[in-house]
Amino acid sequence: MHIPSLKDQVSPEEWQLRVDLAACYRLVAAYGWSDLVFTHISARLPGPEHHFLINPYGLMFDEITASSLVKVDQQCNKVIDSPFPVNPAGFVIHSAVHAAREDVQCVLHTHTRAGVAVSAQRCGVLPLSQQSTFVLASLAYHDYEGVAFRDEEKPRLQADMGHANFLMLRNHGLLTVGKSIADAFLSMYTFEATCQIQLAAQAGGELVHVNPAIVSGVAESMRVQTGGLGGAFVWPSLIRKLDRMDESYKS
């Protein structure tokens, strides 16, 4: 599939954001978190226009490139012409989060088996692992209201999320946000690992919970150890890994 490059048609800042977001899509595919074409990762572009980048609906995540990403406004109208459609229903959740969280550049949403499974458990995330303590330091829940295509759900989702960086969508999946694409990705890596570990632990013997005092103090530990789930430490190594696999996402 040939997609003309947009590199000379957008600002250097937008192009770098496109490359990073395309890389994020490829990494989500590489780690097995994609759900065919049915989830989304969005990124806010700098500037007062409130424009966003999102995936072209119908492309698999391992097909997405910097130039194929679609620029839309808050109503999901295309800002730059694209031959690809955008899924307005998929943008409802993302637009709600972006509208309420000016501190957020990236919103990442998945439907993994482990994530959906834990989202269907009444207990939600349990303090069973080191990974879970990072999640529990900034976790919120939103009850399932059906397929998210109604704008009337947005205020409830925004209120439930508040200032959390991890959101468990009950019976639906996982959502993370970050001040950068790198941070949102690393948060999802931690969230997904938390859910996989929990399901594995529940299949075994008696569970041992992390001391609540440790959970309550983990926010500072997270900042010291990883720069606040700092994608700045991990992201360059992920990009090198991706480049060894396939550099076509940069086109």
UniProtKB/TrEMBL annotation:
Phylogenetic classification of the source organism: Bacteria, Pseudomonadati, Pseudomonadota, Betaproteobacteria, Burkholderiales
Domain Class II aldolase/adducin N-terminal, chain residue ranges per copy: 19-199
The protein, known as: Class II aldolase/adducin family protein
Highest taxon listed in the record's lineage: Bacteria
Matches recorded under NCBIfam families: PRK07044.1
Similarity comment: Belongs to the aldolase class II family.
